[in-house]
Fold each of these.
Amino acid sequence: MASITYPVLPEKLLLISLKMYFTPERTTSYMRALLDPANEIVHPQNRDKLLLALIPDFLTIWPCAEILKEYENKLVASGTSISPPPFFLGAQDCMWEEYGAYTGEVSPAAIKSLGCSIVELGHAERRAIFGETDDQTARKAAATCAQGMVPLVCVGEITAPGAVASEAVGQAVAECAVLVRAVLAAIPADAPVIFAYEPVWAIGKPKPAGVDHVAAVVEGIRGVIGSRPGAARVLYGGSAGPGLWGAGGLGKAVDGMFLGRFAHEIEGVRKVVREVEESLGVA
Ligand SMILES: O=C(CO)COP(=O)(O)O
């Protein structure tokens, strides 16, 4: 069997999921705005340090992939390298089988063929509303790696921290560890993987989880991952937005952020990108 080539992950990642919030028209104009050089959001020269990715709904992956190709062609025409790619496209889920009689499901091979590099798996909403299990998520992660894509696995405790901070951290790490271990056991050791630490109680709220809690849980998750040949990145998600990364923020604790509502306006994305670039010394 031919060996699989995986995407190369940079130091920091900023991923945006549109969940099911946008019309197709809004998604495509948003994608164009993200890539528009005038908006100063994607900087291909910083690619080794910071990479952005958009995870639209299934219907808009194809048009977004076409927009991305146009953008890359312009870069190549102006003499800018697109290897490694300056921007990633992702999917919000996939089936654990490659093809077959699975009505309503989406093949990881089809997702790959459209140009996606990342597949988000096991999001809290898929677990709570659609009953996705750890075992299913792990199988989907294996199917994602088999296509040479990167699984973006969401983990996070359900209950908000109580009065004793250390107990809350231990409980959160223990809850996250179950899926982290299941996924790592299912994927090749050399496959890159991204874990998004998203405390369920902090998703869809006005404010994110506290920096100290996130930093301690992420450290615990890194301990569970341990050392492995493939790259592993741990991001934070859950009401993340401008102001969370810089001084006294999450920048020192995590490998990036997974953005939802606070990335719906391009200005919000620009602010977050700037904060990360400043911390990396590439602003
Ligand atoms: O679930 C999330 C990203 O997948 C976070 O969403 P919000 O930032 O809208 O809470």
Note: The chain has a mean pLDDT of 97.
Amino acid sequence: MTNTSKKILLNAFDMYCVGHINHGLWTHPRDESHRFNELSYWTDLAKTLENGLFDGLFIADITGVYDVYQNGIGLTLKESIQLPSHDPSTLVSAMAAVTENLGFGITVNLSYEHPYQFARRFASLDHLSNGRIGWNIVTGYLDSAERLIGQTGLKDHDLRYDQAEEFLELSYKFWEGSWENDAVIKDKVNRIFTNPAKVHAIQHHGRFYQSQGVFQVSPSRQRTPVLFQAGSSPRGLGFATKHAEAVFIGGDNPEKIKKQVEQIRELTAQQGRKAEDIKIFLGITVVTAETHKLALEKLDEYQSYANPEAGLAHFSSSIGQDLSIYQNDEAIPYQKTNSIVSVNNRFKEQKITIQDLKNQHKLGGRYPLFIGSGSEVAEQLIQLVDTTGIDGFNLTRTVAPESHQDFIRLVIPELQSRGRFKTEYEKGSLRNKIFGKGDHLSTQHPAHEFRCYTQSKSQPAEQNLEKQTA
Ligand SMILES: Cc1cc2nc3c(=O)[nH]c(=O)nc-3n(C[C@H](O)[C@H](O)[C@H](O)COP(=O)(O)O)c2cc1C
């Protein structure tokens, strides 16, 4: 499939930690990720990305620690493999204050808090960023997280998605079903800040959650944040194609990526949504320089600081299997675990040795690696978009912030000169920038059912209160 005019979407992919995907590079003399706990590190990054016209900063997060490899956290601590890692929501107001257009896709694991607190926090951020918030919906895959919050083990994989379904339904009720658009009138003369007739109590009596009452936050620009998801098991795909507006996939082979894309588009259509209602982002790593030769030299230099074993430790937790027990030339047996099904399934389909994984984790990890001059990388990215049908990329960092700066200086102008990347931002919210159809979710989306501002589904707050006190 070739679409010569399709503009490529682009997010930076990062995490509020030192070692994110490309482990070991924190030891590179020019890498600044050890400054991850300084606000200026993030506000500078936000300004850099906005200068480069990135659509968003996609911030990964985990609840828990990587303790599967060697049955402990020794290497995780030494190499700072997503430990320490801090709460990503806390970064966003500051980054929003120094930018106007950059979107923020924030990962939050829904398993460990009530939808009410979560919906309130995200609606508040959407207000402060003037509609630039996205939520990467994750359900968790680490036993260590369960122990940290006093549970005995991870809930069954599919049960986590059952809970996620209900979490979203209740969140939609808060965001879409409690306040009408014209509820807040700020009328000083008549002393009416909010019209009580326009605010409705929601009701929810479910399997996992109970809630009754009025949402505490007035409608933000987008109401529901832009919904991202990265599950790719059969159950995960069903969930993503029902709710998500953007899905994030991994994959190193164009044929397989294309199949994944076709499957996502088909499932989306089966859910009664338009195939183009979901944007598909592929994770990638790029090493670029002024010439091909210089890019190869840079790759060598970066790889001399990388630590593939740290990549293995990360991977062990992703699949829930301790990979330290195998020799380099041993093929990794498939074991059914409760972790990331789609990543683990690779061991069913292919013979992969520890050495294969180590080679892969020198740089890039689960994401394809592109090396070359700006024009070479741009050509490869365009070809991948046109042959697979993806919509854009989540770009990992290597040496921070150098790798983002290199991409902006060398690759983006080449994409622009080929007409495949914007030369200015669209107006409006993050949702409008991505889809060009306004700030709110479309009427085809399941959230529509819970809207009080198109059809009233609950009583005005005052009537409800009267009933309770009668
Ligand atoms: C590309 C990709 C990125 C992901 N990023 C995160 C993340 O930042 N935090 C997290 O807790 N889970 C993350 N996950 C895990 C998924 O959100 C999901 O919980 C997991 O894949 C289990 O669902 P599945 O078995 O349906 O794939 C990611 C998965 C993929 C494939």
Note: Confidence is low (pLDDT under 50) at residues 455-470.
Amino acid sequence: MSLSREDHANLLIVDDDETIQRLLVIAAKDHGWRPRTAGSGMGALDALDDSIEAVVLDHGLPDIDGLQTLERLRAAQPDLPVIMLTGLNDAETAVRALRAGAADYLTKPFELKRLFDLLRQIRVDRSGPVIAVTGASAKLAPADGLRSADARVRELLRRMEKAASLDSTILLTGESGTGKTYFAREIHRLSPRANEDFIPVSCPALPRELLESELFGHEKGSFTGAVATRAGRFEQASKGTLFLDEIGDLPPELQPKLLNVLQDREFFRVGGSKILRTNARVIAATNVDLHAKVADGSFREDLYYRLNIIELHIPPLRERKDDLPGLTAAILGRIAARRGTHTWTLSPAASEAVAAYEWPGNIRQLENVLERATAFTDRNELGEKDLVPLLESRRDGHAANAGGKVRTLHELERETFLEAYRRTGGNKARTARELGVSERTVYNLLERHGLK
Ligand SMILES: Nc1ncnc2c1ncn2[C@@H]1O[C@H](COP(=O)(O)OP(=O)(O)OP(=O)(O)O)[C@@H](O)[C@H]1O
């Protein structure tokens, strides 16, 4: 183990190859860093202290490997950005490093310039309040959602961008309305498949037989109503991205079929006997705890691990309140652009009300509230009065018997439905779950009460 300790070092270089160590030290100094070196995983842990701003970590180390070192370093300092150096063609390690929280990875041999560009960006990210992610997305116009004032979300964005280029299956987790679909589209947009199709499929929206046919296609005559042969979404998305929303609702009968297609890329159409192949990249999303579903036997463990190659968890809005001003401005800008009007600002009191609220329906609810608040004002500034009545408390709305007046069943249904629908920020799947009905019933209710 070689370990050189310099006071106030801010970059830890971990590599057992002394030539590379020396090279990196010289380059680091040239780029204004104060390097410290370690030649092993345990050495890296010894060398870590609060002054270290970032780590460059080789995977092939003599004692504990780079991934284990990464895990221990991040357990010691959860926000520590680590750039992993992996071997050529070692995509698996790269994926595992990103899953374990690496900020980025580089395959050896790499250009020093690329490494120090990444390190510079890490510094910028850490010092600036609102930044755009680097790399592929920087070449495109940075989307609103790819900015964050929250360190945890910035890290997520970096991992997301990296994962976009890898073609691996991704599992997006997070509460309803946190932006899983939005992120899935962004991942597709940042991926090499950007010019191909992005095909979303909502698992609970269809009954089992139709979902199977939707995903895998069917042969003519394979069931009543199958009047013609139809290609499924896996075929259509073969060059692009297939987004499986609410994957936790995938019926048990379809889980083995999805597992097969993820493992072997092969499947049959419903009623078909010809093996078909697909190259679709799969992004799945869930707002339920799939672990718990595995534990209670309603979701296959092997499928869970197949889907969860890279997990990206989007925190709820109440845990990233620093992002509220940026998201509010972005959403207001979007509404203004759509309506062809000026945009709006929030008065200090309105901003405070927004910040104090818990946003159970997350970004979708924020969007709905801003849509409604801006619909009825001629002013450029939204005040507390424009917003507060739209921020419902969970206890509100139980007006089934308000004023002792007897309601018709139709009215009660409408109120109960609307309450759940608003509380979930207009999310149909979650409304369905809250009310214990199917998602199709939610569509019927919207229709029946003239809310479509
Ligand atoms: N980062 C963001 N910036 C701006 N708008 C966003 C962002 N994330 C999400 N949104 C908007 O918030 C709304 C809800 O997002 P989205 O549908 O992606 O959530 P979701 O997590 O997929 O919800 P569900 O689990 O209910 O399907 C969308 O209209 C989306 O455009």
Note: The pocket of adenosine-5'-triphosphate is lined by residues 144-145, 174, 176-182, 245, 285, 287, 327, 330-331, 363-364, 367, 427, 429-430 (CB under 6 Å).
